[in-house]
């Protein structure tokens, strides 16, 4: 039993999902505007990431079922308070190997493991993430899931995480460096992800696809194929789940899902191209192109369907069931359309028209026989498989008929 009284800072006991944990008391770490600043606390715990962890445990449970795994082994090398590791153990029945470089985090996580009575299933130690994952690999641990949840970019940990996966497993990564990933900090994007920067009108999807593409490229260099199981954008971060399977042929196949993301600032075209210095296929203007990035589906529909069922069954234990259900339902519709979303406000500004409701545009495109849906990326966005001239004509028709605006 770890002695609770040894903590040299004020604490609070809270519940998140199916676990109860001790955290640094948020009231002691508020900014002058009253907002809690998790980075100021001696150990990092961000309640807003409860949603990210909800999705993580549901995906783990669904993946276990789909892959027919008898035992779920999770590695979490950047564990903070231990909340994620605990939720994997308690809510997905996983065996978890966790680490953190900060001794205060490890101490608090040990207390939290004790509180939840899972000392036999969650092990934590003080270690550097990369050294920890390399050590587990040497000792023969074969993770079903490696979950990277760092401050900022997961790039420094991705190579070792990939190598720590045996024949088959899932790499999950959160990235909070959304400014580089969405093209706003071009030098950091080149440095961290080896990506040619540009700003598209679909910057949140660009961020998700760049991280997914980076995982695919790094996996290929270690002779793993990578299949994107789920990838989304929420709050201020990007989250990608990729299933890795060893094999040079698989690696070659997954590399074929890479390309460059394109945006034409003159006619609003959005799409993918194979070479970055291509001109717009519709108006011949120079395209803004970024990549390499992933150009395939953002989720596996079977997995998402199962996750929806599991979420529904656990609606009372998740930290935000309504939000989880909404994201999964939206992603379920979105993943069949791979073309990037359109920002309707940008397109309407190019066409010098007022913006109709995105749902009306979706309806009009569906009426014409195309697939179309709203997008979780942006309330002003929609995605469709309709060719660009059809999208433009549809809007021009709506302008002419005076369709109600948003
Ligand atoms: C964003 S927090 C993790 C939050 C946690 N995964 C959760 O869901 O609440 C990142 C953690 O990584 C730890 N960290 C930073 N660099 C590290 C490294 N090189 N090796 C291991 N841990 C590290 C920090 O101490 C911090 O606790």
Automatic annotation (TrEMBL):
Stored Pfam families: TRM
Catalyzed chemical reaction(s): guanosine(26) in tRNA + 2 S-adenosyl-L-methionine = N(2)-dimethylguanosine(26) in tRNA + 2 S-adenosyl-L-homocysteine + 2 H(+)
A single MF term (Gene Ontology): tRNA binding
UniProt similarity note: Belongs to the class I-like SAM-binding methyltransferase superfamily. Trm1 family.
Amino acids binding S-adenosyl-L-methionine: 53, 84, 100, 128-129
CDD domains xref list: AdoMet_MTases
Organism: Pyrodictium occultum
Protein name per the record: tRNA (guanine(26)-N(2))-dimethyltransferase
Protein encoded by which gene: trm1
């Amino acid at each position: 039993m770890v002695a609770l009284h040894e903590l040299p800072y004020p604490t609070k006991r809270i519940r998140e999902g199916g676990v109860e944990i001790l955290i640094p008391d948020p009231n002691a770490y508020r900014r002058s505007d009253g907002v809690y600043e998790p980075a100021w606390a001696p150990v990092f715990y961000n309640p807003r990431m409860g949603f990210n962890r909800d999705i993580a445990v549901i995906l783990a449970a669904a993946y276990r079922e789909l892959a027919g795994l008898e035992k779920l082994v999770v590695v979490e090398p950047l564990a903070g308070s231990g909340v994620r590791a605990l939720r994997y153990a308690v809510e997905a029945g996983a065996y978890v190997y966790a680490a953190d470089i900060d001794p205060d985090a490890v101490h608090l996580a040990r207390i939290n493991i004790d509180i939840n009575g899972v000392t036999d299933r969650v092990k934590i130690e003080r270690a550097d993430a990369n050294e920890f994952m390399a050590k587990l690999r040497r000792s023969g641990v074969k993770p079903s899931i490696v979950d990277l949840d760092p401050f900022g970019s997961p790039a420094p940990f991705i190579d070792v995480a990939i190598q720590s996966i045996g024949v088959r497993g899932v790499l999950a990564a959160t990235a909070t460096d959304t400014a580089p990933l969405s093209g706003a900090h071009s030098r950091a994007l080149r440095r961290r992800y080896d990506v040619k920067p540009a700003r598209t009108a679909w910057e949140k999807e660009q961020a998700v696809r760049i991280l997914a593409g980076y995982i695919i490229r790094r996996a290929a260099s270690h002779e793993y194929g990578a299949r994107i199981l789920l990838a989304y954008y929420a709050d201020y971060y990007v989250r990608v789940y990729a299933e890795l399977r060893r094999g040079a042929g698989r690696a070659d196949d997954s590399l074929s899902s890479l390309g460059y993301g394109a945006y034409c600032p003159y006619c609003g075209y959005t799409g993918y191209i194979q070479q970055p210095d291509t001109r717009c296929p519709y108006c011949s203007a120079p395209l803004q192109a970024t990549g390499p990035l992933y150009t395939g589906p953002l989720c596996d529909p079977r997995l998402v369907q199962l996750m929806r069922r599991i979420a529904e069954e656990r609606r009372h234990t998740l930290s935000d069931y309504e939000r989880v259900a909404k994201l999964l339902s939206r992603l379920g519709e979105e993943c069949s359309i791979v073309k990037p979303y359109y920002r309707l406000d940008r397109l309407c500004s190019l066409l010098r028209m007022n913006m109709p409701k995105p749902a009306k545009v979706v309806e009009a495109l569906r009426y014409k026989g195309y697939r179309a849906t709203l997008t979780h990326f942006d309330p002003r966005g929609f995605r469709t498989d309709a060719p660009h001239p059809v999208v433009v004509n549809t809007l021009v028709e709506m302008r002419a008929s005076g369709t109600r605006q948003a």
